[in-house]
């Protein structure tokens, strides 16, 4: 006997009043709720239908509780059915029992390594299957992301909300069964307060412009003619026009690392030439009128001037007006303050290594966020996919040779620019442990493609072989060398030479939301979160378990 379940949509979508309908006196509810048998072409169908009347009350439409009729088809027959069953059993055995001698998947990476496949193929397959075969794992991550974002709001350095969120992460990691969950204090973190701020265009017409002051900016109340420049060259060509004016850096987005230089140094360079204030075209690849903040800085010896980002659309408007020969005058008001340095914490939990626990694979994201939006993409989701990678390893009962630790690092957004980077404190405090690999997810936990890599060539080849062999099912086999790495794994590379990976994803949408009010949980997709966690879990587990360490820290 073979059993087949089939779904067939039938009848109108539920209007949510099903139970009212079946209780109406004009329906034969007993007949409707009784299983019926029907012979169709050698199969006997057993159907439990729940009926409701058609809108005009003359015909009966069928509808199950889930808008569909589940039909249990009981095949009748003799020997042929036994043969079918035997085939299913054979296929089932082939699927459920890993055959290490079977040929590897078709379309494999050129970095495919057969011995890695033999040693870690089954576990990688199990991790990927558990993480991605149903919606629940991704949904769990997304629900936790919503909880983190909605409960605490933005997790800005220097706020109680950040430290409450850190406590919550520690509690939840403990509930998950992670080991050695604890916080480590990070002193001297940024404590900049935005306060009230606005910018108006006064001439050629009155218009309030969407803006966000840049983190670390001084306060100011300045009004003046505006001069727009497209790059440093134009600023210096027109240096004698700058004094007493407000400079707009209207720099088109190319890459983040290139364009963000104007956010870091705009106030320094404009202030040096005597500008009274500065505006920045938001560092963003696509805009829906949302300005994007971020850290800025000053240098000793130059006059600090107030510096704010305006929406891309506002920058285009100003450029258009200037292009037609009209003078543009603006009034910028910022009341920001830098208060006494605050304290936050790095928060962490782990699966302790079974053989060499002081050798560590560390992975994580930053727990702090900007003060606008909810820090869902940057970097709540990044921390959550790392955390759930470790949780997955724990849940599967895996105990690798080395320790796998997830860390939520403090004060990434303004660290090293204005304050202390939590990851620097982590690297110093854990100097006596040997970090064989450091992985960060802070480029958006979107569809994973692989990793970017910074480190020695020998470990690069191993990483390429591991990814090429074990991540084919996720299409996440890339290991891209030479593009730099994330701020939170850089300290381990700098202090121990530890190879540093950044999760590489399809970040098309990253700079749409980055550092803006639009960075909210709805932008993150549960399936993509699950795939990111699976990618991280496979690499973290295998590197933690390799017989020879990926890298011997200096
Ligand atoms: Zn970030």
TrEMBL record:
List all Basic and acidic residues biased stretches. Answer: 17-31
Q: Name one GO biological process term.
A: proteolysis
User: From the UniProt record, which GO molecular function terms apply?
Assistant: carboxypeptidase activity; metal ion binding; metallodipeptidase activity
* UniProt-annotated stretches for the region Disordered: 1-38
One CC-aspect GO term: endoplasmic reticulum
- What does the annotation say about its assembly with partners? Homodimer. The monomeric form is inactive while the homodimer is active.
What protein does this entry describe? Answer: Carboxypeptidase Q
UniProt organism field:
Klebsormidium nitens
């Amino acid at each position: 006997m073979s059993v087949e379940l089939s779904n067939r949509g039938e009848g109108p979508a539920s209007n949510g009043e099903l139970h009212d309908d079946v209780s109406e006196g004009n329906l034969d509810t007993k007949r409707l709720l009784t299983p019926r048998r029907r012979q169709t072409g050698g199969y006997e169908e057993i159907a439990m239908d729940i009926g409701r009347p058609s809108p005009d009350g003359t015909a009966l439409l069928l509808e199950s509780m889930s808008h569909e009729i589940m039909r249990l088809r009981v095949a009748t027959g003799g020997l042929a059915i036994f043969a079918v069953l035997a085939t299913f059993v054979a296929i089932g055995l082939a699927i459920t029992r890993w055959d290490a001698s079977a040929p590897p998947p078709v379309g494999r990476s050129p970095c495919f390594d057969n011995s890695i496949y033999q040693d870690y193929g089954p576990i990688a397959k199990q991790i990927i299957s558990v993480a991605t075969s149903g919606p629940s794992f991704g949904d769990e991550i997304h629900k936790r992301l919503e909880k983190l974002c909605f409960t605490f709001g933005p997790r800005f350095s220097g706020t109680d909300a950040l430290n409450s969120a850190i406590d919550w992460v520690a509690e939840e990691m403990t509930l998950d069964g992670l080991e050695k969950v604890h916080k480590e204090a990070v002193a001297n973190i940024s404590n900049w307060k935005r306060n009230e701020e606005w910018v108006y265009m006064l001439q050629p017409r009155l218009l309030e412009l969407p803006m966000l002051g840049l983190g670390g900016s001084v306060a100011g109340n300045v009004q003046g003619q505006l001069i727009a420049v497209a790059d440093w060259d134009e600023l210096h060509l027109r240096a004698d026009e700058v004094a007493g004016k407000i400079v707009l850096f209207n720099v088109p987005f190319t890459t983040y690392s290139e364009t963000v230089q104007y956010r870091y140094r705009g106030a320094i360079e404009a202030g040096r030439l005597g500008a009274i204030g500065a505006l920045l075209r938001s560092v963003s690849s696509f805009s829906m009128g949302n300005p994007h903040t971020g850290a800025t800085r000053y240098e000793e010896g130059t006059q600090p001037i107030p510096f704010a980002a305006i929406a891309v659309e506002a920058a285009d408007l100003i450029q258009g007006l200037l292009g037609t020969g009209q003078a543009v005058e603006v009034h910028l008001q910022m009341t920001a303050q830098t208060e006494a340095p605050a304290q936050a914490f790095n928060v962490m939990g782990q699966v302790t290594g079974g053989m060499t626990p002081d050798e560590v694979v560390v992975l994580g994201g930053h727990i702090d966020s900007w003060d606008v939006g909810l820090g869902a993409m940057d970097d709540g989701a990044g921390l959550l996919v790392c955390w759930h990678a470790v949780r997955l390893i724990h849940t599967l009962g895996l105990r690798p040779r080395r320790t796998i630790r997830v860390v939520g690092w403090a004060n990434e957004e303004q660290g090293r620019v204005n304050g202390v980077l939590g990851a620097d404190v982590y690297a110093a405090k854990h100097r006596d442990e040997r970090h064989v690999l450091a992985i960060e997810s802070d480029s958006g936990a979107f569809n994973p493609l692989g990793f970017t890599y910074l480190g020695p060539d020998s470990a690069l080849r191993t990483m390429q072989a591991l990814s090429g062999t074990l991540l084919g099912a996720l299409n996440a086999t890339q290991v891209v060398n030479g593009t730099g790495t994330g701020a939170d794994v850089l300290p381990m590379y700098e202090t121990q030479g530890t190879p540093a990976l950044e999760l590489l994803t399809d970040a098309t949408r990253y700079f749409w939301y980055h550092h803006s009010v639009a960075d909210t949980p709805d932008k993150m997709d549960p399936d993509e979160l699950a795939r990111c966690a699976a990618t991280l879990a496979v690499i973290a587990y295998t590197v933690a378990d390799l017989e020879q360490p990926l890298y011997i820290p200096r």
